[in-house]
Amino acid sequence: MRPSSSLAVTVACVLAALLAFPGCGSDRATGAGDVNDSASQTVNLNDPYGGFLPVSEEPAFDDAEVSSLAGREAPQEDGYAGLSEGQRERARAQERDPARLVYSLSVLWGDLQLPDWDATGDPPPERDPLTWDGSMTLSNGTIKVVSLIDFERDEDFLLPRETRESVSWVSVTSGGFDGLRVLILLPSDSTGGRAVETLTFVAGDFVKTFTTDALEELDELFELGDGSEVSFRAFRVNPLSTVAHGFCSGRWGWAEGDSVGTFRGHWIGGQDGALFGYMRGHYGVDAQGRQVFFGKLIHLDGGFGGFLRGHWEAAGTGQDDSRRAHGNFQGEWANARGSAVGRVRGHWSEAGRAPGVFSGAWSGRRITVGS
Description:
Blueprint: H1 5-17, H2 64-70, E1 73-75, H3 85-96, E2 101-110, E3 130-131, E4 134-138, E5 142-149, E6 157-158, E7 166-170, E8 172-173, E9 177-186, E10 198-203, E11 206-211, E12 217-223, E13 229-236, E14 243-253, E15 261-269, E16 275-285, E17 291-299, E18 304-317, E19 324-334, E20 340-351, E21 354-365
Antiparallel strand pairs: 1-5, 2-9, 2-13, 3-8, 4-7, 4-10, 5-9, 6-7, 10-11, 12-13, 14-15, 14-21, 15-16, 16-17, 17-18, 18-19, 19-20, 20-21
């Protein structure tokens, strides 16, 4: 995937203005004492909800960039394309079988940031292309392709499949990143138990093998010597469980002159890649010196979906030659009354005070698309 200069301009400009609401913050979960509408929201790291209110917004926050970020996901209508009809039917039955082990896995590779800009405001030169041609292979089981991330026509594509255990691709990045979301379907052994299999991921020169029991709650970020990264995130899914899981991703970083950072992105299902809604928020250091973040989740129609709140930390300072900072975040997803209904966690990466990206996972009550 190659980054767009016009997109980068839009991101930089919009981030500078994001969440510039009037007013001051307080405990507003019920809107007591305030005009309970979206215009009354603030940026307040000392407020229990970050200054957000449990009110509806315009779809996608009336923000073209937020909407376009979700457009980078390409859900696949046929995740078993290339397999025989018999293999497809068996795989679909496994997806619905609560006794089977089914995992949702998200992998990103490339530059998990937007490149820094120079003092003149000109976009940086495009980086030399990096080749990430590779594959994902199970020792035994079936892989279903749920969605492609930032794959571009003619440059990034899946290769025709020959077996149910493997998926292969062609991928080139030039200052951006690509990725896949897949379902991992594992067989039971002859005694009805669950055998431990292996999953091997290859992208360019990067090779990593996991045992499938590591997919229960996988959260790994690998930094490569050329400044690129590879991110893995996985969890078990159960179609009959009252607890749902999914992914979230988008932009994360500081705008020049701002005292807080901002994030914005989308919220998708882990089993089918369906878009559930959008999120945006802010992060920084509160009056007690804690590194906190707050956000708001909305459904596709703009209806209130929940508060996000938690803590973030830096694992890298960004003071090396690449000026890269990175770290992680974790917190809870709360309803309009402020009661926790789920959790969220993930990684972020940025360059200097230019916007970077975040990628995470959520779990909690089931969501109806569009509700």
